[in-house]
Amino acid sequence: MVLVEGSEVSLRVLEQSDLDYIYRTINSIDSIGEYDVIQLTSWGEIEKWFKTPILSEDLVMLVIERNVDKKILGFVVYYTVHPFLKLLEIGFQIFSKEDRGKGYATEAVNLLLKFLFSSKNVERIQATTHVENIASQKVLENNGFIREGELRCSLYRNGRYYNTYIYSILRRDWEKLCLGH
Ligand SMILES: CC(C)(COP(=O)(O)OP(=O)(O)OC[C@H]1O[C@@H](n2cnc3c(N)ncnc32)[C@H](O)[C@@H]1OP(=O)(O)O)[C@@H](O)C(=O)NCCC(=O)NCCS
Hints:
With 181 residues, the protein is α+β, with helices and mostly antiparallel strands. The protein has one domain (2-179): Aminopeptidase. The chain contains six helices and eight strands; from the N terminus they run ββαααβββαβαββα. The protein has helices spanning 19-26, 29-32, 43-51, 104-119, 134-142, 171-179; strands at 2-5, 9-13, 60-66, 72-80, 88-94, 124-130, 146-157, 160-170. Helix 1 packs across helix 3. The model has no long low-confidence stretch (mean pLDDT 95). Bound molecules: coenzyme A. Residues 33, 35-36, 91-94, 100-106, 129, 133-136, 138-139, 142 line the site of coenzyme A.
């Protein structure tokens, strides 16, 4: 089921027939990329995401699908990060190098903001990126996210800790950008 449709890509819910492909793809170093946490995902976790309700507080994964040929390009996720504060965090990945640099993640995050601000009672959506992950930072900045600061030693990869930038966008900023008021 498509949740939000853009010009090049759409966001849709996970379907049972996607699970095998997602499982095989999500754990490859190529799709994780150079900067993200190497977090290996089990079959059980993928099945759990498949069963998680879309408006859940737990991690929800949506598929980024290319409109023209229905190819699964990657995913977006959103999840709550604090037991008391209303902090919704997002993440995103485009699986294949050949599909990167074509604006797909920028459009997918645009659609995700539209979906989340329309369907959830949330004022703030945040994201963190490795300080050297320029592509990820541009995706966020293209969508109106503001860099708020640096989280020291917050990302572990290849035997060492790296700093991450924290970004956020508030509902009021998003409304100004998208709705013009
Ligand atoms: C980060 C990622 C999602 C970006 O996806 P994408 O579809 O290539 O992003 P876009 O095509 O929308 O590009 C956004 C911007 O980044 C730039 N960009 C893309 N790849 C780049 C790279 N390797 N180095 C520098 N800039 C890059 C694009 O030119 C574009 O710039 P612009 O806004 O000035 O035009 C993708 O590289 C990826 O999946 N990486 C591995 C996982 C990851 O790091 N996820 C993010 C975790 S926070």
